Amino acid sequence: MRGQGKSVARGIAAFVTSVIGLSAVHAERINHEGRILGPAPVVATPVLFNTAQADAVISAMQILPVTNPWNEDVSRRPLLSNSGAMITQMKADLSSSRQTLRAFSEMNFVLVPDNQARVTIPFLDYPDESDLDGGTYPNGRYPIPSNMPIESWPRDTGGLTLQQWQMDVNNSGGDRHAIIVAPGVGVIWEMWQAKLTQSGWQASNGAKFDLNSNNLRPTGWTSGDAAGLPMFPAVARYDECERGMVEHALRLCVPKTRKEYIYPAVHSASSIPATSVNYPAMGQRFRLKAGFVVPSGWTIEEKAICYALKKYGALVADNSGGFFSISVSPDDRFPANAFNNLSTIDVSNFEVVQSTGPNEGPRTSGAPTANAGADQAVNSLSTTLNGTVVDPSGHATVTWKLYSGPAPVNFANTSAASTMVVFGTTGVYTFMLSVDDGVHAVAYDAVIVNVQQGSPSPTPTPTPSATPSPTATPTPTPAPSATPSPTPTPSPSPAQTPTISVSVSPTRILEGADATFTVSSSAVVSQSVTVGYVMRGTARPGTDYTLGGTGGRVTIPAGQRSATVSLHANTDRTRERSETAIMALSSGTGYKLSTITKATLTIQNK
Q1: What is the pLDDT at residue 543?
Q2: Domain 499-604: homologous superfamily in CATH
Q3: Helix or strand or coil: residue 447?
Q4: Mean pLDDT of the chain
């Protein structure tokens, strides 16, 4: 059962750095997109957004509850009755050269530990609508680290250092948003017109949001955005773009709004009367039309954003002054052309959906639940997945799928909560059970099955008892190590740190075929080295392909120079464009990474 002690192979678990510790979480954590998050990270020192360390932390977070409007699937929501008229008005308010979507590099952030030192910051313009958080009016007390970035740094700041941009040495002005994230306590602080002066920090406004709650700001209060909404949950970040799917609604700025706000917005900023309903209100939700075909040649970042705009849409958060734009992180790791094609999407490809209120949609009572059953260790090539579901609606879709594993499996019935599954080989498999009633957030739960056919009885495998002891979790490490003792292997100097790279062969396969990722060391390793990795790309593990071994890590045995991870591309009956499966190596202990940290496999439809 979810949250009751079952361990799950976690791709992020191998990513441990000097600034991040991993807390002892043994229960699977599954987000609203059905992605297993891995252990909750603990930030020890401030971490900038454009780093692998930040990626590891953010990708393991559930950002806002699964029922939050930013995480709400609106792909099946009906259209607003005047959707067409609102789009027509939108185009009329845009100049002829700006009637397409724009992706602006804007909001960045810094991650801080829970005990980050507090700094006094005066709020110069809107102290009455600011969260002082322990400060004395008009000053706030915020956990501001010395490396807090300001909007658009470093991508669009002309080579200025962080401190120079913090101080606005060129008097560039602008909105100058700043965001601080404390993953441990699940809190964010957001400011605008933030600036470092000789006497310290200052800003126009300060807003604090609880990432574990659906609570809004007080009615009528602004924030870093005119709508009074948070910005951090709404920005397209590097980690999710590289995975191939932005998992939330996006922050949308439009040329004009009316003087009205709808849930979840709490503030308006317009002189256009509320009765002019063909102008959007703050909080209005736009959606990319389902019929818009995302070209196969677009970048993974562009595809990730388009998929999000179709599923989660975009919420009107501010007035743009003449653009129809979304915000992406100004991460300097993005390729220069990462988002160029988005500016070819005409505004007419969007529509306006009927929004849900605070007690509607996923926030209503009667949500389904899923229980995938207890983890199993079996000695045969078949077993029964004993899931249970609660479906108050009476019409929810129940689905089992293979989330990860060494080879494809055959289900007796993927739509039954309890079903037989047949394996093709031994190994560790993770299965996902989902329940979707079309209104609430999809309910997920996962179960691990360790298939050990023919395993000798002395092997210390966990018994199928009701005690989910993490110490009894079967590990993929052979016992004892299969070191080829008869052959004297060269032993590198203990002081030598191996340099790790990755490749894939072949680089292009059809559905139903296999490929092999090879993780290689620059030299023979004297002791086993476990390398962490994450899978990215548009193809989804468990659905489009299955992996061999233990997900998220691969071990190069002592005396060897490489280890492999097999991939099998699943065959389906859906006609679709080619997809990518990208293995990206993670930093870790006992090795360093070469310049070749990614290997891309293209999976073609049959």
Answers
A1: 78
A2: CalX-beta domain (2.60.40.2030)
A3: strand
A4: 88
